[in-house]
Write a structure and sequence with these properties.
The complex is a heterodimer of chains A (432) and B (589). Chain A is an alpha/beta fold and 432 residues long. Chain A folds into three domains: 70 residues, Thrombin, subunit H (Beta Barrel), CATH 2.40.10.170; 256 residues, Rossmann fold, CATH 3.40.50.12240; 85 residues, no CATH class. Helix content of chain A is 34%, strand content 26%. Chain A contains twelve helices and 23 strands. Chain B is α+β, with helices and mostly antiparallel strands. Chain B folds into four domains: 70 residues, Beta Barrel (Thrombin, subunit H); 74 residues, RNA polymerase II/Efflux pump adaptor protein, barrel-sandwich hybrid domain (OB fold (Dihydrolipoamide Acetyltransferase, E2P), Beta Barrel), CATH 2.40.50.100; 235 residues, P-loop containing nucleotide triphosphate hydrolases (Rossmann fold, 3-Layer(aba) Sandwich), CATH 3.40.50.300; 141 residues, Bovine Mitochondrial F1-ATPase, ATP Synthase Beta Chain, Chain D, domain3 (Orthogonal Bundle), CATH 1.10.1140. Helices cover 33% and strands 26% of the residues of chain B. Chain B contains 15 helices and 28 strands. In chain B, strands 8, 18, 19, 20, 21, 22, 23, 24, 25 and 26 form a ten-stranded mixed β-sheet that branches. In chain B, helix 10 crosses helix 11. The chains are: A alpha/beta (432), B alpha+beta (589). Chains A and B meet through strand 5, strand 17, helix 6 and helix 7 of A and strand 1, helix 1, helix 4 and helix 6 of B.
Chain lengths: 432, 589
């Protein structure tokens, strides 16, 4: 039986300190308050003074409350029974289902040895032309969706989850609005995907420390399933909330802030999560799609900025559409040479023309006269926006490529597209 | 191993405070004994009998009272034959061997020999009994790949020695004694093929440091011609994410005209290292005809690996670079990214509760960065030969803003600055080195005169371009417009280079000279266009012809044809040549 400590020395924000010995760094404890029992994690040892962050928060904790150390770090149960279930950030059920306690695995484990990784080579189809055609998502990629509050990023995430050809979806929600949580739940239920989904959800109403646990729990479970040969898609929303939770704890602990109040290790913290994305040579894979909302649509804000240095590109969701400029999949070159002969050419060609359309729009708004070429571009731009960029478009890659040729043929003469003659001969739609 | 022991009194992230019972030295290595694991740590502050250490592993599970052992040695790397072709982590653990031992994951507390103990090397003694010897002097050689690896008096044997005996030529393991040295007091030291050297001390066994003057060719036109790097020099590549820092370093690591390349992947994406790991063994080194991997060492401490080891990794890499420099070789160290290394220092500084400097970086940031880059250099060895270490570091400035402390501290100490710009990478102008912001203090393969003359077109062309945005094409004179077109032309056909095109990806200095002369000819020519539209159309055509030529094999018949076609194309409209251009062309002949 572990010793119980009933004298809390200090309470600062969500961090309490007790005098105790024999405690390990990273160990869990239970704090019994009059509101119930909460988990707490050891985040600092200084002599016999042990600092713990309390999952349920510091509010209402009394200096006379009991702290009982459990002798183990944060763990989560791992089995097939997880599928279809919903938990909170502490790993407790949120769906009135049974508590799972068998086969506990540690979270936040070591990094994968780089020599055991393989070069990514398979695309993940999503049915969204702006992704499949222009910025292909690749198995084992880590890719954030940069967006702004108010944009339908959760809808986009839910849709990718529904349509992506993966074995298992793990949704990690951080600071999620309760409505959004229900939206995910209902959408996955209606789409019949709930059975292959595991949700770890921290809502905005929950204590902030639990938010910090969500990515680690989600990824620890994902890693185990990947090692069993499953292709896992991990959706994290929203990593800016996670970063803000880190900031909150860091400030409480009187750490020196580095940039806009964020702790100096923000990069390492984010990287240790994102780098869990992997394709094991002999078993499954983990692909990570994470929402990062950019305060003020500012890509130089510390969270999107650090994220951009870690991830393999980004989708930029703006005005309800995935913007071709600002979006990038760094791994697309590894797969889009193997899909269809015209994939790369259509991808580059259509974007170049779309860039020209944007220039024309600017010219138009400044009152310059529109030439015949400008008018063609305007027509093209409108078609591109409505038939390619609109998020309601839901077609497989091959259809999207055909659609691309149709749009081009409707607006331009073949030689105006700048595409290779060989491809034009093969793919240019023949007029009836 | 000293007898000093200690026990843990505090843990904060990867900083562990230890109470010790004896003498400790700054930066010495300690081991935290956690069950059957021994976690490596480094002493970073001593206060009375309380010592603060940074642990190179995850610190979960450490308790107050956990035992700590002190080694008495500073963090060091093994030096000897067998380093080439290896893949190490920041503490010189061979990752492929670690993978065999622990599987997919990097478990804490696993430290393996950096140099394979079982391998045998064909030793040939070159010194003779009775010779005087000092540290760094050659005793014998072994072949390592296509290099002659010098077995030297270990750098840590200070003082003067006399060679007493040498092992006869034959096959030996690196732990076998190959020489016995006697010092002035008659004490004998047995020398093996390997020894250790502390990573944070620069290797200083050379006669003198020289001025870097000889260009290090990278086969990237914008670097070799406009912003050259010298052997033994330093340069930095700052740029926002997505601007192509890593791609530029990968290209350089393949093409650079040096003997050995050491890649320090420091705190960056694992995926990018994997590409190098899997592709290099397949690629051929054009200088030796063997696999590129045979001249490469990779030190990789990716972003999710422990932070303290990230800080060590750049030192591990530069120490190995200095070792090969001592053999009279030219070594290039590519560090990607030094910002992550600086961030590792910042994390530690925060935990030590030091008074923070700008953006919470420690106040000693500048001096640490400066002393790291100062380990680059070209030296004259004691035997008269020359060897060099060139350091190229990428910087990942927060928000792509070059005003931040790491970029600024780096700019103060490097000899060349290749600033990447978002604007250029968005426009798909690769390599996205900004031609107006970047600079180099080194001499390159062209005369500075000619480069400055060509550069003027870029500057003036950009000015005209800015002006045109305000007054429109209508308000620009035809002469100004021509300068603008010439600037754009130089940018498109010379500064930009297609790293995916097999020919254009690497351009020899010889070809650069020929193509540069061609461009000078266009820049220096006067033309008689009747209006801007015809000028633009002609330049578009010229650009296309030029770009086509860029992807034609050098010195082939097709190249000669393209070359004369281009000459005719220019001659068709040119009406005269600027006298300055004539002089430059003569000097390039």
């Amino acid at each position: 039986m572990k010793k119980v400590y009933s004298r809390i020395e200090s309470i600062t924000g969500n961090v309490i300190a007790v005098r105790a010995d024999g405690v390990s760094y990273g160990e869990l404890a239970e704090v019994s308050t009059r509101f119930g029992v909460s988990l707490a994690e050891v985040i600092r040892l200084d002599g016999d003074l042990v600092s713990l962050q309390v999952f349920a928060g510091g509010r209402g904790i009394s200096t006379g409350d009991e702290v009982r150390f459990l002798g183990n770090p944060m763990r989560v149960s791992f089995s097939d029974a997880l599928k279809g279930r919903i938990f909170n950030g502490a790993g407790e059920p949120r769906d009135r289902g049974p508590v799972l306690s068998e086969n506990l695995i540690p979270i936040g484990g070591p990094s994968v040895n780089p020599v055991n990784r393989i070069i990514p080579r398979e695309m993940i189809r999503t049915g969204i032309p702006m992704i499949d055609l222009f910025n292909t998502l690749v198995k084992s990629q880590k890719l954030p969706i940069f967006s702004v509050s108010g944009e339908p990023y959760n809808q986009l995430l839910a849709r990718i989850a529904m349509q992506a050809e993966v074995d298992l979806i793990i949704l990690g929600g951080m600071g999620l609005k309760h409505d959004d949580y229900l939206y995910f739940k209902d959408t996955l239920e209606e789409g019949g995907s709930l059975a292959k989904t595991i949700m770890f959800v921290h809502t905005a109403a929950d204590p902030v420390v639990e938010c910090l646990m969500v990515p680690d729990i989600s990824l620890a479970v994902a890693e185990r399933f990947a090692l069993k040969g499953l292709n896992v898609l991990v959706l994290l929303t929203d990593m800016t909330n996670f970063s803000d939770a880190l900031k909150e704890i860091a400030i409480t602990q009187e750490q020196v802030p580095s940039n806009r109040g964020y702790p100096g290790d923000l990069y390492s913290q984010l990287a240790s999560r994102y780098e869990k994305a992997v394709d094991f040579s002999d078993s499954g894979s983990i692909t990570i799609l994470a929402v990062t909302t950019m305060p003020g649509d500012d890509v130089t804000h510390p969270v999107p900025d650090n994220t951009g240095y870690i991830t393999e590109g980004q989708f930029y969701l703006k005005g309800g559409r995935i913007e071709p400029f600002g979006s990038l999949s760094r791994l697309k070159q590894m797969v889009n040479g193997k899909t269809r002969a015209d994939h790369r050419a259509i991808m580059d060609g259509m974007i170049k023309l779309f860039a020209a359309y944007r220039d024309t729009l600017e010219k138009k708004s400044m009152g310059f006269q529109m030439s015949a070429w400008d008018k063609k571009l305007l027509k093209y731009g409108e078609l591109f926006e409505s038939q390619m960029m609109d998020l309601s478009v839901n077609i497989p890659l091959e259809k999207a490529l055909d659609k691309g040729w149709e749009i081009l043929a409707e607006c331009f003469e073949p030689e105006e597209t700048g595409l290779q003659t060989k491809l034009l001969d093969q793919f240019w739609p023949k007029k009836a | 191993m000293t007898t000093t022991k200690g026990s843990v009194t505090g843990v904060n992230g990867n900083m562990v405070t230890v109470k010790v019972d004896g003498a400790v030295s700054m930066n010495e290595v300690a081991f935290i004994v956690l069950g059957d694991k021994r976690l490596k740590a480094e002493v970073i502050r001593v206060r009375g009998d309380s010592v603060q250490t940074q642990v190179f592993e995850i610190t979960k599970g450490i308790k107050v009272g956990t035992q700590v052992e002190f080694s008495g040695e500073m963090l060091a790397v093994e030096l000897g034959p067998g380093l080439l072709g290896k893949i190490y982590d920041g503490l010189q653990n061979p990752l492929p061997e670690v993978a065999i031992k622990t599987g997919n994951f990097l478990e804490a507390g696993v430290y393996l020999d950096a140099l394979p103990r079982g391998a045998v090397w064909a030793w040939t003694p070159t010194a003779k009994p009775g010779d005087a010897a000092e540290r760094g002097d050659q005793l014998g050689t072994v072949p390592e790949g296509s290099f002659t690896h010098r077995i030297m008096v270990p750098f840590n044997l200070f003082g003067s020695y006399t060679v007493k005996s040498l092992a006869p030529a034959g096959s030996y393991k690196i732990t076998d004694t190959v020489a016995i040295l006697v010092d002035e007091d008659g004490h004998e030291s047995a020398v093996t093929m390997m020894f250790e050297w502390p990573v944070k001390r620069a290797v200083d066994c050379y006669a003198e440091r020289l001025k870097p003057v000889e260009p290090m060719v990278t086969k990237t036109r914008i670097i070799d011609t406009f912003f050259p790097v010298a052997k033994g020099g330093t340069y930095c590549i700052p740029g926002p994410f997505g601007a192509g820092k890593t791609v530029l370093q990968q290209v350089t690591s393949r093409n650079a005209d040096v003997d050995i390349v050491i890649i320090a992947a420091c705190g960056e994406r694992a995926g990018e290292v994997v590409e190098t790991l899997k592709e290099f063994p397949e690629l051929m080194d054009p200088r030796t005809g063997k696999s590129l991997m045979e001249r490469t060492i990779i030190v990789c401490n990716t972003s999710s690996m422990p932070v303290a080891a990230r800080e060590a990794s750049v030192y591990t890499a530069v120490t190995m670079a200095e070792y090969y420099r001592q053999m009279g070789l030219d070594v290039l160290l590519l560090a990607d990214s030094t910002s992550r290394w600086a961030q590792a220092m910042r994390e530690m500084s925060g935990r030590l509760e030091e008074i923070p400097g700008e953006e919470a970086f420690p106040a000693y940031l500048e001096s640490v960065i400066a002393s790291f880059y100062e380990r680059a250099g070209i030296v004259r060895l004691r035997d008269g030969g020359k060897g060099s270490v060139t350091i190229g570091g990428t910087v990942s400035p927060a928000g792509g803003n070059f005003e931040e402390p790491v970029t600024q501290a780096t700019l103060k100490v490097v000899g060349a600055f290749h600033g990447l710009s978002r604007e250029r990478s968005d426009a798909r102008k690769y390599p996205a080195i900004h031609p107006l912001d970047s600079w180099s203090k080194y001499g390159g393969i062209m005369s500075q005169d000619s480069v400055a003359w060509a550069h003027w077109f870029l500057e003036r062309g950009s000015e005209v371009g800015q002006m045109m945005k305000v007054v429109g094409e209508e308000g620009t004179s035809l002469d100004d417009f021509l300068v603008y077109l010439k600037g754009e032309f130089l940018d498109a056909v010379y500064l930009q280079q297609n790293s995916f095109d097999p020919v254009d990806a690497s351009v020899s200095p010889q070809r650069q000279k020929a193509v540069f002369a061609k461009t000078i000819k266009v820049l220096g020519s006067s033309f008689d266009f009747k209006d801007k539209e015809s000028a633009r159309t002609w330049f578009n055509g010229l650009r296309q012809t030029f770009l086509d030529m860029n992807s034609v094999e050098w010195d082939s018949d097709a190249y000669k044809k393209a070359d004369s076609g281009l000459t005719d194309f220019v001659a068709s409209r040119a009406t005269g040549l600027d006298p300055k251009a004539v002089r430059i062309l003569e000097s390039l002949e």
